[in-house]
Structures are given as C-alpha cells and as structure tokens.
Amino acid sequence: MSVDSVFVHKMWNDKELLKMVDGGIPFPMLSDAGGKVGTIYGIYDEDAGVETRGRFIIDPDGVVQGYEVLTPPVGRNVGESLRQIQAFQLVRNSKGTEATPSGWTPGKMTLKPGPDLVGKVWEVWKTEMAYEK
Amino acid sequence: MGEDLKIGCARPTGGPVGETVDAKETENIIKTEEQAMIRVGQKAPDFTAPAYHKGKFVSVKLSDYLGKWVVLCFYPGDFTFV
C-alpha cells in the first residue's frame, strides 16, 4: 500500500516489476491516496506526504501480532517476515503452550513455558542459538 | 527555471511558500489528527482500499481476509528503488 493511484501501480507492475517477478505482483497493490489508512496505522509521514516502510503481520482473527517500520532508504528482509509468521503460526497451533526462543527457525526446538522451566532456560538454550542460521 | 531535484527513496514533494499559516490554526489541525501507534495483540483497524490486482482494478477490504494470515506492507511510493 502506498499513496500512489492504482493507475501508477499498474504502470509500475507492468513496466518494471513484471521483469523481476514472473507473472507480476501476485497480491493486491493497494492505493491509499491522502494517507488515511497509513495515518490510522501510525506510519504516515505527514511532512513528506508518503507512507514509511511499515509492515504488519495480522493473524486469522484480525489481530496484529507484529510490526516493523523503517525509513524509506532501507529495504526489508522478507525472510525475517516469513520466519516471524512461521513462529506465530507455531505458537497459535500449540494454543499458546509453546514459545519460540531467540534465533528460532522452523525445525528448531521450542520452549514450553511453565514452572519447571523457570531459571532453567540456560540448560536447554545456548546463546549461540540466537545467531545460528 | 527549475532546480534539479535530489532523487532518493522518499517521493519528491512540494509545499506552500510565502506567508505562513496562522499558528493557532495549525495547532488545532495537529490536535485533531494526533497519531496513535498500533498495538500488538489488538485488532488491526479495518479499511477498504482500491487496488490493482492481476490486471484488474478491485476494491479490497481487510476484514474479507479474516481466517487467513495477512502481511500488510506500506512503502513510500512506486519506483522508490528499494
């Protein structure tokens, strides 16, 4: 979503993005003229008249699980967004009984928070795991 | 004669020049449009927006996606490089 019109979205998709992604952009490119939606989401930069790089992860109940906001010159890391979605999905499927420690990626061990784990995380989770790929 | 614009990732914009708007008036506008940041764990505000999707112009409503995971991305503008 940006403040550009749907006509400009079409031109960007057809003239440039189509050359990067086979078949063009698969998801809807939303237009927010005037930044009304961006304002409610707190990412509209009124002075510049544009939206900053805000990214929101919304779960199947419509609840915001996470967000990230960057200033215009720095691009996002899609892999990190996907990792977070996979983590939120795992937590949701476990009905909140499992938690993903720092550095978690799919397949890695999760934690089951409870009285037995208090003060014992150091036994099962090591600092290096925060940096592992 | 126009000056060369410095082109970066922020969309180039202009603004009013000359006499400044009465300070009191500006203050009122700011008060009524105070921004509140979204909070995690709370409902995402619903909205509808026009969209370009696979060759068509359509209207998209966030709440139509209930039951699915949604990634909502904002960006400064088309053709902004990154």
Written description of the protein model:
The model of chain A has no long low-confidence stretch (mean pLDDT 96). By secondary structure, chain A is α+β, with helices and mostly antiparallel strands. Chain A is elongated, with a radius of gyration of 19 Å. Chain A is built from four helices and five strands, in the order H-E-H-E-E-E-E-H-H. Chain B contains one helix and three strands. A two-stranded antiparallel sheet of chain B has the order 1-2. Chain B is extended. The two termini of chain B are 31 Å apart.
How is the topology of this model organized?
The complex is a heterodimer of chains A (133) and B (82).
Chain A: H1 6-15, E1 29-30, H2 36-40, E2 44-45, E3 50-51, E4 53-58, E5 64-70, H3 78-93, H4 121-124
Antiparallel strand pairs in A: 2-3, 4-5
Chain B: H1 23-32, E1 48-53, E2 56-61, E3 70-73
Antiparallel strand pairs in B: 1-2
Quick summary of this structure?
The complex is a heterodimer of chains A (133) and B (82). Chain A has 133 residues and is α+β, with helices and mostly antiparallel strands.
Q: Helical element count of chain B?
A: 1
Distance between the termini of chain B: 31 Å
Strand order of the largest sheet of chain B: 1-2
Q: What is the CA-atom radius of gyration of chain A, in angstroms?
A: 19 Å
Mean pLDDT over the residues of chain A: 96
Q: Biggest β-sheet of chain B, characterized?
A: 2 strands, antiparallel
Percentage of residues in helical conformation of chain B:
10-25%
Name the features.
heterodimer; A: 133 residues; alpha+beta; two-stranded antiparallel sheet; 4 helices; elongated; B: 82 residues; two-stranded antiparallel ribbon; 20% strand
